[in-house]
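Researcher: Re-running this chain for the archive, since the previous output was lost when a drive failed. Same request as before.
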Amino acid sequence: MPHPRRQGTLVPVTRLHDAERRDFASDNYAGTHPEILAAIAEANGGHQTSYGEDRYTERLQEVVQQHFGSAASAFPVFNGTAANVLSLQSLLPRWGAVICAETAHIHTDENGAPERVGAVKLLTVPTPDGKLTPDLVARQAWGFGDEHRAQPGVVSITQSTELGTLYTPHEVRALADQAHSLGMRLHLDGARISNAAAALGVPLRSFTTDAGVDVVSLGGTKNGLLFGEAVVVLTPDADGGLTYLRKMDMQLASKMRFVSTQLVALYEGDLWLRSATHANAMATRLRAGIEDLPGVHVTRPTQANGVFVVFPPGVADVLRRRWRFYDWDVATSEVRLMCSFDTTEADVDELVSAVASAVA
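Model: Regenerated structure tokens:
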């Protein structure tokens, strides 16, 4: 019997998951925003030149310049680790090193990709809140000209940080001025850049272009994209061969229009801001619901879309019968609860009610 697809008949796809289930482990757990799916469908059909010479990637350049200034240029890639690795590679010589927080994603969650793939040395600094300061950077910004030491060439910060905290534009500017005075560059990992801008109530450029950042890893997946991020060069002479590095690192999409159209759909209007504002609001609602419950200790400021908390003994185990979430510090029993663009008030209230029951 002929296969139905060969007869031009669509075979129904069976849904394999509960589409109503939402967890608090990561904003990566969320699906794709309907407006992003619509943009992908709209970009389909017909032929467009491959490898980025398409109308959607061209439009992305215009959108990025609207947010970051006329000198900005975007290099779409598949994921955030690639955006970070490519950013750092482009900013450094082979002997270069990156100063970052000990909790930075490039150090803790990318399986050594910056060092193994990017061939750059990470110089980490312990921080109380996930944020670097000029004084903290100074602990590693030394040994210039010493052939026995990897040469500090980049300061890398994350906005919002892995601990859910935020840099103000003034704080970023202080780091940029310090880095530039030492002949270094400033990179910003913006996996959750939209959440940061929404929480601060400022445009994206206020803590990037206007604050002296040289290169940004522009996030998308954590804010509703199916896949895709971009390296955005803000200082033109900071582009150290990204055109070639992207291909060499296997991040040049042949059908790039389907990456670019997602980023256009996210950033052309206010979808990025709507989605991030909602995720932040759900985290605020969650914190407010649990922080005064007996034995519950919220450990860090809730400035974006994450809540860090230590529950009374045994409570996390009870909650995990229904929800997934991650341990942040096993030694202290600290866990992280993340909200996303599709987290609802009902989702939050259900979790709050479960916590209240468990601690009671």
